[in-house]
User: Fold these one by one.
Assistant:
Number 1:
Amino acid sequence: MYKILKKDGNAKRAEFTTVHGKIQTPVFMNVATVAAIKGGVSTEDLEGIDTQVVLSNTYHLHLRPGDDVVYKMGGLHKFMSCNKPILTDSGGFQVFSLAKTRRIKEEGVYFHSHIDGHKLFMGPEESMRIQSHLGSTIAMAFDECPSAKAEHEYVQMSVDRTTRWLERCKKEMDRLNGLEYTVNKNQMLFGINQGAIFDDIRIEHAKRISELDLDGYAVGGLAVGESHEEMYHVLETTVPYLPENKPTYLMGVGTPANILEAVERGVDFFDCVYPSRNGRHGHLYTNKGHINLLNARYELDDSPIEEGCGCPACRRYSKAYIRHLLKSGEMLGLRLCVLHNLYFYNHMMIEIRDAIEKGEYSAYKKRKLDGFLEYDSIPVNDGYNIARNWRKG
Ligand SMILES: [Zn+2]
């Protein structure tokens, strides 16, 4: 199912075959939290911006419209008319970050809905059942994401429980995939490595979950307030203990620079709300660094956001026009900015794959990072302030 086509240092160029088609990795998954990419981006639009995988949110879809509704509509693929692979997160992160009050027990988590405050419970079995209803291509295990600042003792206790939860997820997923009316009987399960910034816990956990022979493995609990150096350090120490012949997914990361660094450390799946969220604020990614389209200097600029960019915004419209749309609060302005940013990320992944195939990854990475510094109005790593809160929106 997962075939490594080429290695360049630790960077992997691979092909992951799923029931909804082949995924070329490294890949950036485009975030469609409530089964839609914010900014008025349709499933049809994804064809024009090189999207390979869509990521939707279990917690949000469970609350609205309800996973039973999606199930009755034939699953997420049919519901949103999407034939691409879809990954659903487990809802765990949202239960821990969004829910107002929560009690963590061995069986799962008791909490209140962030929408109307009503009482809810989610444990490994519930998360698997919801994701089975959604019928995503890849389901994520239900885990606890301890704070980056949590004490060693708490993190160890939490990770041990996450491992027991993972075993329950696997058992439940196997059962659900065997039922007659399951939407996607080939639903895959990715486990999640946790351990905050403690090397010993991360490594031990990576070894334990590797034994479960899952379809893929994620490194979770990063981009939650630790420094970039700490994040890269965790990847360097942990990824070597995850199975090389399975996909490695770095959850919720990150800036273009973060992705370039993580690919070099063996990661091949990514997701992040930066391109869509920043796009909605007129913050655009280019090969020379960020630009803020609301800046007055673009008022009479008739060039595209980026010369040579093949996205639907740059092929037709000028900075001046899109800036005007943003300032007028026109939906089209947000849409064009989000399309450009997603295209930028998706297209960078194409370049990354190409560079690994040619065995030129480190030279490519350096060239790309150096290029980002040309526009110094917003430093290339500024994403971090936004990173701390990105999952909350
Ligand atoms: Zn563009």
Number 2:
Amino acid sequence: MDRFAGQPILISGAGRGLGEGIAHRLASEGAVVGIVDIAGESAHGVARAIEGEGGKAFGYEADCGSRAAFFEAAERFASDAGPLRAVINNASVLVYEPIEDVTEDTLDRMLSAGLKSVFWGVQAFLAHRDEDAPGNILNYSSPVAYRGRPNTGAYTTIKAGIAGLTKVLAGEFGPRGIRVNAMAPGSVPTPATEGFVTPEQYEQRAKNIPLRRNGTVGDVASAAAFLLSDEASFINGAMLAVDGGIIAAG
Ligand SMILES: NC(=O)c1ccc[n+]([C@@H]2O[C@H](COP(=O)([O-])OP(=O)(O)OC[C@H]3O[C@@H](n4cnc5c(N)ncnc54)[C@H](O)[C@@H]3O)[C@@H](O)[C@H]2O)c1
């Protein structure tokens, strides 16, 4: 499949985890991917790996919570790859802890990486988008946006905020030919969850997931590629659950 042939697609936080998987997937379908991560070495490493597989990719080090830094990365990507067709707002800092333990520093880091970065990603996309082609914005929410899981106060606030913002943007940008959607990946082991979810807890979680397994990076990458593709051309303002049924019946 070459669904994204030559399309420049910028992905925040794609130096590892779900973003890395999506970058590989989109590149394998012809996209030119821009990998932005606060961990510059990771961003460059993913870009090199994609190039090694025969794909096209550029890596950039930037703190996506900083408007200036995210804009600079987007500008460099547009100059390297051409005007943008899509942005994927995936960057995040994950901390699970009781609300009374949340410090100002942790909250600032989480809000900056996970929520402010979405605003800057959207603005940078508008500044550098291909005005002659349909556009796409894909945001990463989570099943927590619908549930009240203890010890996820900051994370849930961010993911519920993204769910609301996605709907607002779908209305604002639909008339301009830009689709805006969100995904809610379920329980997917990545480096982010290593410190918070043990292998035993993952086994336990699987028992409560209707499909009786945790998700994979590939599950999420396939869903992301679908939402960005023309096969999803009338999907706008949606939250796609990629969670084995947790939201519906977990
Ligand atoms: N893994 C899951 O089970 C799961 C479930 C639901 C939602 N999600 C969401 O999917 C997305 C990816 O999750 P993941 O598990 O791959 O996370 P991860 O922590 O493995 O990857 C996040 C990446 O974002 C980067 N990053 C952090 N702060 C940044 C900043 N300020 N600027 C630029 N980059 C920054 C990190 O360096 C890292 O490479 C997140 O939005 C997360 O909330 C994940």
